[in-house]
Predict the structure.
Amino acid sequence: MRHLAVSAAVAAGALALTACGGSGDPGGTKADLSVSSSYIPQPVSDMAAGFLTIVNKGGAKDALTSVTSDAAGSVTLHRTAGQSMRQVTSLDVPAHGRLVLETGGNHLMFEKLKRKPKQGEKVTVELHFADSGPIKVEMPVKPATYQPMNGH
Ligand code: CU
């Protein structure tokens, strides 16, 4: 799986470079966040993982502090360290940088799913940040074995 994670990092890097030419607030002092590459592998139990990239075009850092969704009883932020994962209270989004949630790394954990979302459906989540306003994201449900770099 290691080579797949590297490919994802390369793809995300290309994305960030493209974003640098955008408007935003490059010399400014506020975070300017956008979300891309979000997906949920179709869950096999009442738990699901979620992956996305948060790009910050602004000159100030921010942090993802919580996630809510009508589809799940709870959504938590998880950090993966080696073979184990642990829940964290926030994940930093650096200034002029990005927060990447990807297979084998940081991820969202949906628990107590109210129903099992199927491939092709979308799950609506709301991302909450330390400084920026909330962002609503429609996360597409992909096959359980989906790897994002297959599309590149
Ligand atoms: Cu986890």
